[in-house]
Amino acid sequence: FTASLDEMTLRWRLATKGLSGPAVAAVIHSGPAGRIGTRLVALCEPCAQPAAGTVELTSAEAGRLRSGATYVNVGTSTNPSGEIRGQLTLR
User: Fold this and answer.
1) Residue 14 backbone phi and psi in degrees, to 5
2) In angstroms, how far is CA 61 from the centroid of its own chain?
């Protein structure tokens, strides 16, 4: 997962391999590493391979992304609640 955040516009790209099946959804959640968080921004449902898009965020959502306590969760049919997760960091 890679993304750029420009003010309130999030441009993202997601590529996966080795999952139990196709990605059925990808969502950014609010939450620190090791904890389950709440849904923040839906990215794709279902997800193409690779998937990409642009999302206009609210100021609260953009602030949460900048806080560093967010992660991307990718679900499959076998693991709809999430098969893979990655904590987001800003560079």
Assistant:
1) -135, 130
2) 12
Rounded to whole angstroms, the Cα distance separating 17 from 50 reads 10
Return the SS3 of 21: coil
Strand order, beta sheet including 38-44: 38-44, 23-30, 70-76, 84-87
Average pLDDT over the chain reads: 94
Q: Quote the pLDDT of residue 60.
A: 95
* Residue 14 token pair: 């997601």
- Backbone φ and ψ of 61, nearest 5°: -65, -45
| pTM passes above 0.90 | yes
| Residue whose C-alpha is closest to residue 43's, from 30, 33, 29, 31 | 29
